[in-house]
Amino acid sequence: MSPSETQHPIGIFDSGLGGLSVFRLLPDLLPAERFVYVADSGRAPYGPRSNAEIIAFSEQIVEYLVEVENCKAIVIACNTATAAAAKVLRKRNPTIPIVGMEPAVKPAAQATVTGKVGVMATAGTFGSEKYAELMSQYGRDIEVFEDPCVGLVSLIEEGELKSVRLSAKLETIVPPMIEAGVDTIVLGCTHFPLVEEAIAEITGKLVTLVNPAPAVARQLVRVLEAQNLLADAGDSILKHRNHSVMTSGNMERLKRVLTEVFDPETHKRLLVSAYTFDTD
Ligand code: DGL
């Protein structure tokens, strides 16, 4: 990769706002990098959709990030899209590193004392081959309580990060897990760390919440280092770069959520615009 190519941006996408739980960690970790985030909120949630649809949407977004935005690497900041589309995306873009995510069953299995783990994820993730593989590798010696959290992603997409409606929804999901004896809950959808505080209000200190976003952020750094793709941090012009945040959904809602999710300094450097996709 030539020095100028290392200055190309890193693309991140999710079905919507969830991937912001990964993106918000990256500007501090990689201050010389520029990021382009696509929130496909106009077509969220992906969870109940078919594999074929999720693959088609993901291919479309990655094509945009690679062909139009010239991204040098991609982060699939979505468990559901990773489970359905990561293999296909890597095959179609063999020269672009693609970092995906998976529900953190492994660290949860290592952390639990009661041997009982709750997993909050989407129906798409639970139904995936990838999840079945994870469970057969790390879930054999633990008891797992799964909840597809119907309606939770949509509430978060509506910008409800702290509302009474959100708490009422979480009350239908989290207490049954606690009653079942779990001491660890996997936040297996990137939307859920955005409401981690509201979840922790219900669990108190009884339960450890496992958010895979920091591990994914570190994995991105490792991949960029290994492939000599890091932007030159010595060049001060590159520091404090502006980042692009695009949505196929409601822009005002995205802007509101960005003010809640990002620190004020980074927030000033986020340029919001529309992401439009072909419908044929
Ligand atoms: N944020 C996504 C995930 O990590 C999916 C949410 C959805 O669109 O259903 O699984």
Describe the structure.
With 280 residues, the protein is of the alpha/beta class. It folds into 2 domains: 3-101 and 214-274, Rossmann fold; 105-211, Rossmann fold, CATH 3.40.50.1860. It is 44% helix and 15% strand. The chain contains 14 helices and 10 strands. The strands form 2 sheets. It has a 6-stranded parallel sheet, with helices on both faces. The chain has a 4-stranded parallel sheet with strand order 6-5-7-8, sandwiched between helices. β3 (73-76), α5 and β4 (98-99) form a beta-alpha-beta unit. α4 (51-68) packs across α5 (79-92) and α10 packs across α11 (196-203). It starts with a helix and ends in a 6-residue tail after the last strand. The chain binds D-glutamic acid. D-glutamic acid is lined by residues 14-16, 18, 44-47, 78-80, 122, 125, 153, 189-191.
Radius of gyration: 18 Å
Structural class: alpha/beta
The assigned CATH architecture of the largest domain is 3-Layer(aba) Sandwich
- How many beta-strand elements? 10
Please give the order of strands in the largest beta sheet.
4-3-1-2-9-10
Name the features.
280 residues; alpha/beta; Rossmann fold; six-stranded parallel beta sheet; four-stranded parallel beta sheet; globular; binds D-glutamic acid
What can be said about this structure in brief?
The protein contains 14 helices and 10 strands. The protein has helices spanning 3-6, 20-23, 26-29, 51-68, 79-92, 105-111, 123-126, 129-138, 152-157, 164-179, 196-203, 213-226, 251-261, 264-267, and strands spanning 10-14, 35-39, 73-76, 98-99, 116-120, 143-147, 184-187, 208-210, 243-247, 270-274.
